[in-house]
Design a protein that fits this description.
Radius of gyration: 19 Å
Strand content: over 45%
Distance between the termini: 26 Å
Structural class: mainly beta
């Protein structure tokens, strides 16, 4: 038996012994469905749109997530903040920013984040960098996969 086969069998056995009944999310499994973030025609610059992502079951400390963002707008780049949920923090639910980045106009970017949803569900806040014209509204797409 190869080391890879042995390691896989040992992992399966340990998972069953240490965490019976726990679901293991497979590699490259999509978390939820693709989500839309929409900006209306003539939207002001820095109009924020939140995309909430439910944490998979189980959440793993070493869990890595790929966040894919497609920005079809030819007018504006998008700024995004990747956040984690802090339930009952300071009297209400708050969202702690883990990192931020940008997505150029008419492009797709992917971001790797480890341990993103340890505190609970995730949130991605996107905002348009420039004011949109009277016919410049658009819908960006967000996909999250567990790797």
């Amino acid at each position: 038996m190869s080391f890879k086969d042995y390691s896989s069998k040992l992992y399966d056995w340990l998972t069953g012994v240490l965490s019976p009944g726990v679901k293991v999310v497979g590699s490259n499994a999509q978390v939820g469905t693709d989500q839309d973030a929409t900006w209306a025609n003539s939207a002001s610059a820095n109009t924020a749109v939140n995309v909430d992502v439910a944490a998979p079951d189980p959440v793993q400390a070493e869990g890595k997530y790929l966040i894919h963002v497609y920005n079809p707008s030819t007018v504006t780049a998008l700024s995004l903040a990747i956040k984690t949920t802090l339930a009952s923090f300071g009297g209400s639910t708050r969202y702690g920013e883990l990192t931020y980045a940008s997505v150029s106009a008419n492009s797709t970017r992917s971001f790797l984040v480890q341990g993103w949803m340890l505190g609970g569900n995730g949130r991605i806040t996107l905002s348009n960098d420039t004011i949109l014209g009277g016919s410049d509204g658009f819908t960006a797409k967000v996909r999250v996969t567990k790797v």
